Give the backbone structure.
Amino acid sequence: TNQVAIVTGASRGIGRAVALLLALQGAKVVAVSRSQDELAELTLKTKGVSVIADVADDDDARYVVEETLRHFGRVDILVCNAGVGSFNLLEQVNAAEWDRIFNTNVKGTFLLCKAVVPHFKAQQSGHIVGIASDVAKRTFVHGSAYGASKFAQDALLATLRKEVRRHGIKVSTIYPGLVDTYFNDTTPGSAEAEKTHLRPGDVAQAVRYVLEAPPHVVIDELMLHPLTQDY
Ligand code: NJP
């Protein structure tokens, strides 16, 4: 298709895989993150554009949508993927770390959705895909900050889904289990992770699937896990 897609957190991991798959399928991809070099390298492959932006910054979020419209004249898809996590017992979580997680995962999703929805409403179409987490549906030890942020992001997206459906706008939320990425300062590609984790491309295929639903269908939620994950 010839659709215009904004993908946040596209410099690596899941976002990068989503950007590459959508580009392969003919979308014009606007890749967003804070890392300039990685985005430049990605944009050579996607033949799209990149916008250096912090999703947690209001001006940056609006700038992402403005740049998309300046380059392509429209926007059809927003993939809210940028996210961070760190894991510790609640009393060991410092307040700055809490803020970093909530600002990226919750406020970042809020700001990008807020910036894009008026344009989707004007064209009476558009699709927001949120990359949440399976931990938006359960709790786990060491996950107070990250888990709470993913519950909040999930609630935000579920609310937005109800608010915008009458404007022809879809909101789909994807809940992956463990994915082999750079998340939480890990290094992907180990033989062990290959057995225990999803690959970024698996999540990208889930994004593709929800985007390909017929016009009268919205896939609200899609959860996927590695077969080995005991959750
Ligand atoms: O992580 P990683 P994933 N503004 O670290 C970007 C969820 N998830 O792909 O800005 C803009 O490889 C960062 O770019 P940069 C997870 O919660 C994961 O695994 O250049 N961008 C990079 O491109 C998250 O929502 C697992 O540093 C910002 C990207 O985000 C999503 O999947 C399991 C940013 C992170 O790439 C992608 O994470 C699960 C900001 N302020 C859900 N801050 C898993 N990996 O196991 C970060 O259930 N980025």
